[in-house]
Amino acid sequence: MIWVFVFIPMAPIVNNLSIVLLFIFISFLPSSLSTILKYPAIINLGDSNSDTGNLISAGIESVNPPYGQTYFNLPSGRYCDGRLIVDFLLDAMDMPFLNPYLDSLGLPNFKKGCNFAAAGSTILPANPTSVSPFSFDLQISQFIRFKTRSLELLSKTGRRYEKYLPPLDYYSKGLYMIDIGQNDIAGAFYSKSLDQVLASIPSILETFEAGLKRLYVEGGRNFWIHNTGPLGCLAQNIAKFGTDPTKLDEFGCVSSHNQAAKLFNLQLHALSNKFQAQFPDSNVTYVDIFSIKSNLIANYSRFGFENPLMACCGVGGAPLNYDTRITCGQTKVIDGISVTAKACNDSSEYINWDGIHYTEAANNFVSSQILTGKYSDPPFSDQMPFFLSLKF
């Protein structure tokens, strides 16, 4: 019988005192964290929830301080004050942060994987008004190009690039993490009714399924599929669609957006099970992000947060501190007055960072809950350590 105590520092919380207590009681060593999450490489696809710099590297957008202030001390290409869920998951796997595919600077190393996620991306193909041209299908095409070119370089140059590129077997043994769909649903509400949004979900997921099959053909066998969170609880959506109090639920979230997210997740779950049955040599894990984030918002004070819906970085003050005309870090003249969207004093008290994305503190909480294994199908709580997040 083995007892292991591990202490991992978190982002600063109230009174600058915070830790994650990881207590593992295991009878057999193979059930340890390092064994369960032992993958040689990680391939990540998605949107801003896991983009580590692709949209910024593409020159489509830019982020300025205070982005990155909590952990990187400067903008890192992430739409956050610090680390994302994917960063915390990679850290738990004892893996380095993923370099974005489009970042050519900083001597990127892709030996342990690559990140193709780009902010604003959708499952459906992009159109001329899309924030990001890098839809799910295009990200997969980028991955195929990455794989093909990497193997070419390895075969032609001997050992010259071994330290920087993954070998062939990493593509079948690696983990494919996918978090996308939020922009398909949230964006649809700007031009469609609730019924129309709900009716569009099957076609969105048909495109997603086709993408999964492409990854499978390329050798992918291990998949983590994150569902979408409670979109109606984002300040951006509340500001736009929640001006009528009757449209809000008991937590102040837009009911229609959360209803659509739930149906999307229900069908995504069914698709994941179908894919697993159709390709029994694959390992598909469906991760219920919606339940984790909903629990966090409903019980925010219990987990040490002070503001469940209000953006940390924005303008306007309570209740949302969000204005569609100005984004975090920008300075603009609004109604004849120069205004700067500044960060709050302590982002660890907030769940929402900029009206759309979560703070590092909230991402830390979500990742710790994912790693309990109890929010996944199939669940792996009997094989994984439990992360207990303590905030003081």
UniProtKB/TrEMBL annotation:
<dbReference type="InterPro" id="IPR036514">
    <property type="entry name" value="SGNH_hydro_sf"/>
</dbReference>
<keyword id="KW-0378">Hydrolase</keyword>
<keyword id="KW-0812">Transmembrane</keyword>
<dbReference type="InterPro" id="IPR035669">
    <property type="entry name" value="SGNH_plant_lipase-like"/>
</dbReference>
<keyword id="KW-0325">Glycoprotein</keyword>
<keyword id="KW-0472">Membrane</keyword>
<dbReference type="Pfam" id="PF00657">
    <property type="entry name" value="Lipase_GDSL"/>
</dbReference>
<keyword id="KW-1133">Transmembrane helix</keyword>
<feature type="transmembrane region" description="Helical">
    <location>
        <begin position="6"/>
        <end position="29"/>
    </location>
</feature>
<keyword id="KW-0732">Signal</keyword>
<dbReference type="InterPro" id="IPR001087">
    <property type="entry name" value="GDSL"/>
</dbReference>
<protein>
    <submittedName>
        <fullName>GDSL esterase/lipase At1g54790 isoform X1</fullName>
    </submittedName>
</protein>
<comment type="similarity">
    <text>Belongs to the 'GDSL' lipolytic enzyme family.</text>
</comment>
